[in-house]
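**User:** Here is a favour to ask of a fellow structure person. Please take any protein you like and set down a full record of it. No explanation is needed for now; the record alone will do.

**Assistant:**
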Amino acid sequence: MSSRRLGIAAAVIAVTTLLAPPAQAAGHTLLVDVGSPFRPVTHVASGGLYALAENSRPADSTLLPIKMNTLTQPPPGVGQRPNGQPPGGDGLLVAPQADRVGAGEVIRMPDIYPDFPYKWVSWDDWLSKVDTMVSARLAAGSVSNVAAWEIWNEPDGTWNTAAAGDFNAGWTRTVQRIRTRDTVTPVAGPGYSHWDAARMRTFLVNAKNTGTVPDIMVWHELDHSSGSVAADVAAYRSLESSLGISPRPIFINEYAWTDEVDVPGRVTDYIAKFERAGVWAADRAFWYEYGTVNGLVVNNNQPTGTWWLYKWYGDMAGSMVTTTPPAQTGLDGFASYDSTRRRTDVVFGDESGTNSVRVNGLSGSQVRVTLESTPASGRFTAVTAPMVIADSTYTVANGQITVAVPNMVAGSAYHLVIQPTAGVPAYQQRYEAENASVFRAQRLSSSTASNGGYVGRIDNTGDPRADSYVDFVVNVPNTRAYTMTIGYANGTGAVATQGLAYNGGAWSTVSYPPTAGWGKFATTTTTVSLHAGYNVIRLAKGSPYFAGGTGYAELDYIQLN
């Protein structure tokens, strides 16, 4: 199935399904274990296919709070006319906006063609187009957030075998052509419309034999397939291992069907399963209008009901913690714990009736619990704020509380915030590096690091395809100067430097004196002048408009006071 075509009849079916009474059973419990972190918060599923359009659509103010992760956008010179709309969303043209909000981009190469399914012309035509796209990217010296080339989209349904020959051979030929000019940018694929073990095995065997294994593995989870995510990822990992292929990041670059993508409860189910499965990134599927993050924003700057789900996701910090649903369908959710603020966030849904959330691993004798919800408003109805259902104090017994949630609506999403009853800071002050947007560096773990994680191997400079930097999206209450403390490690034995810039402004230099070794942390301070609301702070070894840092340093956190 294509993820691009929706006629009037299908649209009516989608709306009817959205409004139909849920068929979910009631009386279930979602288990949350605050004491079982399993990965840093990285907002893996806050992405979208054709999420952005030229001329800053939608507004930055709608993107910063949801902590955009990875986007899939058309290539330079886009010809694709999704659902009959004019070509738009050129990856290089929208790159500055993606960069402003801390998002990386994967460029979908076959969208150079105007039609979907793609109409093959000839190999000379395709390879010429590949050359043109690569040349445009190489000439874009100020663009540093392109994460990969996506070679093809849904080849199991869109590749013209009769005219172009076998797809696997075509994959190899295309990758080899890219590599004659661009040996740096990762390649992503194969981009199947669904998980297909037999097809994937054949593809990987050929790719391994020809030295063209994707750097990033891609397939879609669309037609009500959230319940299959765990099994699909496990099947891929088993296949990968059996073929002797080193572990690759998994990118689910289209998720949620037409009657799911605008339903917060259903989307919650997908996100929970992506987080537990450990995928690298996941993008909301495109069905309607581009430049709206696929229905999260209406009128360019107003949130829909589903946007609030992603806002709650964006507010998460620290570590993702284990959630256990009663089954692979129905009630599910994802949760985080920020050890600095002693704050637990739980987002859940996809169930009706009276259900409960049981949270284990809490400290203290009492906690404040806030419960709110957001509805399935559709993609054209703005929702100015979520609805607060309850705000109360719970007694913690044996590290546990159980929160009953009456009258749940399966299409709605729900948010629990659990925090101390006193001493809560007025705003988030500490931002962990491992929670930030990390470009060409590596998230690492250490018991001596704040929250147990940090970012190292921030090593590259001098090439916008490979520059290493970390972008922190921060939210402050007032416009003024803030003292910024940086937790870092420097095992070189000499002073190291990185570039510092915020909100796209001028660069300055931060110096890091030597520490006791790599993963041995100290602090340094500087001053940043921020405006009230969201700001993006970049610390870079290399970045456009910055000549490059000296030596090497690892980043643990920043703290704004």
Remarks:
- The chain has a mean pLDDT of 95.
- The two ends are 51 Å apart (CA to CA).
- The CA atoms of residues 128 and 243 lie 33 Å apart.
